[in-house]
Amino acid sequence: MNTDPEELNLYRKLAQVLAETLDLDQLAAQTAALVVDAVGANVCFVHLVDPELMRLELVGATPPFDSYRHQVWLGLGDGIAGWVAQTGQVAVVPDKWTDHRYRYLPELQGELFQVLISVPMVHATGNVVGVLNVHWQHKDVDLLQQQQVLTTVASFLAGAFEHTLLVAKLGAHERALEGFAQQLIEAQEAERRRL
Q: Given 3.40.50.300, 3.30.1330.30, 3.10.20.30, 3.30.450.40, which CATH number is that of 5-194?
């Protein structure tokens, strides 16, 4: 496989981002920006799968859509991104208005974009961690080339997002345990004072 210098530069930048942060929002924002720059797209949305609630959550996007982080959800199987999350397959959509899977979300201004590539981030375990939705306003996109680049990017990112989610869950559990321990100490002290 011949990788052009721009692709290599993208992979280097991704590696740098992955090495620098474990913050979910920062990782998603930087990923979206890198993807848009690398493939000449107009916007990138980063969705993560919440397996407990059986839905996708928008966790990152390029401006101005980044203001909708953690406010947009799709059910698994709902819309093109939901279909990709459910099936683990790439969706290359030259005209999203003719695709029966497309779901219009007014806040994401889908009317501005025609071409879409939606790529699953598949962890080594086979679980779909999330979906990259990449949109272009114009139709003259080399869909095969961009699909290849985005698939490689998604494979890099799957493990990083999985790891970041696990670190966040571990932090939440630690905070809950600390809170429980503090409540236990306070209850013991109150009981001692009572006696």
A: 3.30.450.40
